[in-house]
Write a structure and sequence with these properties.
By secondary structure, the protein is of the alpha/beta class. The protein contains 13 helices and 10 strands. Helix 2 packs parallel to helix 4 and helix 11 packs antiparallel against helix 12. The longest helix is centred in the last third of the chain and has 22 residues. The protein is globular, with a radius of gyration of 18 Å. The termini are close together. It binds glyceraldehyde-3-phosphate, 1,3-dihydroxyacetonephosphate and zinc ion. The site of 1,3-dihydroxyacetonephosphate has 13 residues, from strand 3 and strand 10.
Length: about 325
C-alpha cells in the first residue's frame, strides 16, 4: 500500500470511537520502534515530521526510511504528515515532497489571519489530494518557531466553539487541532490535569462528524522520568496527559492524538541507563537498540489507550 491520507482513518476513527496515534519521527530507530509496535497491533498510523525534524535528518533520509516502512508493511495504512507547519511555503514544500497530510499552525496569528493562511494552504493542498489540519486556540509549551502560551494562561486560550464553526467553514480545513488545556513538552502540569472535555464536546456538537486533533498528549511517563533522573538526569517533577484522558478523548470527536515527548523520554531513559551501567560501552547499536525497544513497548501500550489496535484494515 502506498502512503495514505487521513480521510478514511478519521471517518473510521470517528464512527467507531477511537483515535489514530500521530507519532513524531526524527531518525531511523524512532521510526522502527513505532512501526514494529504498529505492525504487531495492526493499527493505522500517522508518522509526523516537524520543521525541526526536516532540518535535523533532511527530508530525503526521512522519506527513504518511511518508504521502507510502507513497503515492509503493506497491510498498514501509513500517513506522512507535516507537524506544525507555520508558513504557506513549508506546507507547499511538503505537499510537493509527497506528504499526504499537512498541518498549518497559524493559531498564533489573529483569527482573520489564521483563516486566510489556512485557506491558502487548503487551496494548494487540495489540488493534490492532500488533507489539511489547522489549529484554533493556543496550546502551551514551545515548538520550534511557535511559542505557546504560558502554562498559567492555558485556560484563557481554549478553543472557542463558536469561532470553530466559522473557522472550519471559511478555511475549508479537514481537521482541527483544539486547545483543550494540553501543552507541548515534558513540563505540562504540576498536579493531575483537568482537560477541557466540555470544550471538545461543544466543538463536536457544533461540527458534527468533523475530526478533531489533540496535541500535547504525551503522558510524561513516570517510569522514564525516574530512569532519566536515576542515571544522572535532572527532569523536574511534572505530569502529562493521563492515558485515561487519551482514551476518553478518543471516544469523543478526537480522531488524531499527537505524541512526541514520550518517545523522546523513552529513548533518553534507555540511553542513559546503558551509559550508566556500562561506562565502557561505545557501540551505538548497544544503546540505540535498547532505546528502540523501549519506544516499541511504549507505543504498544499507547495503541491500547487510543483504542486503534486491529483497525488497520478498516482504515485502508
Ligand atoms: O509539537 C512539537 C513536536 O514535539 C515537534 O517538536 O519541533 O522540536 O521537532 P520539534
Ligand atoms: P507532546 O510534547 O505532548 O508529545 O506533544 C507532541 C505534539 O503535539 C506534536 O505536535
Ligand atoms: Zn503539537
Amino acid at each position: 500500500m502506498a502512503l495514505v491520507g487521513t480521510k478514511k482513518m478519521f471517518e473510521m476513527a470517528y464512527k467507531n470511537g477511537y483515535a489514530v496515534g500521530a507519532f513524531n519521527v526524527n531518525n531511523m530507530e524512532i521510526t522502527q520502534g513505532i512501526i514494529s509496535a504498529i505492525a504487531e497491533k495492526k493499527a493505522p498510523l500517522i508518522l509526523q515530521i516537524s520543521k525541526g525534524a526536516r532540518k535535523y535528518a533532511s527530508m530525503s533520509y526521512l522519506r527513504a526510511i518511511i518508504d521502507v516502512a510502507v513497503k515492509e508493511n503493506p497491510d498498514i495504512p501509513i500517513c506522512m504528515h507535516l507537524d506544525h507547519g507555520d508558513t504557506f511555503e513549508i506546507c507547499k514544500q511538503c505537499v510537493d515532497d509527497g506528504f499526504t497530510s499537512v498541518m498549518i499552525d497559524a493559531s498564533h496569528h489573529s483569527f482573520a489571519e489564521n483563516i486566510a493562511l489556512t485557506r491558502q494552504v487548503v487551496d494548494y493542498a487540495h489540488k493534490y489530494g492532500v488533507s489539511v489540519e489547522a489549529e484554533l486556540g493556543q496550546l502551551g509549551g514551545i515548538e520550534e518557531d511557535v511559542v505557546g502560551v504560558s502554562h498559567d494562561d492555558l485556560a484563557s486560550h481554549l478553543t472557542d466553539p463558536n469561532q470553530a464553526v466559522e473557522f472550519v467553514k471559511k478555511s475549508g480545513c479537514d481537521s482541527l487541532a483544539v486547545a483543550c488545556g494540553t501543552s507541548h513538552g515534558a513540563y505540562k502540569f504540576k498536579t493531575e490535569p483537568k482537560l477541557a472535555f466540555d470544550v471538545i464536546q461543544a466543538v463536536a456538537d457544533k461540527l458534527p462528524m468533523f475530526p478533531l486533533v489533540m496535541h500535547g498528549s504525551s503522558s510524561v511517563l513516570k517510569e522514564f522520568k525516574d530512569l532519566i533522573n536515576k542515571y544522572g538526569g535532572k527532569m523536574p517533577d511534572a505530569m502529562g496527559v493521563p492515558e485515561s484522558a487519551i482514551t476518553q478523548a478518543s471516544k469523543m470527536a478526537v480522531c488524531k492524538i499527537n505524541i512526541d515527548t514520550d518517545l523522546r523520554m523513552a529513548m533518553t531513559a534507555k540511553i542513559r541507563q546503558v551509559f550508566a551501567e556500562k561506562p565502557t560501552e561505545f557501540d551505538p547499536r548497544n544503546y540505540l537498540g535498547p532505546a528502540r525497544d523501549a519506544i516499541k513497548a511504549m507505543v504498544l501500550h499507547k495503541i491500547d489507550a487510543l483504542g486503534c489496535a486491529g483497525k488497520a484494515k478498516e482504515c485502508s
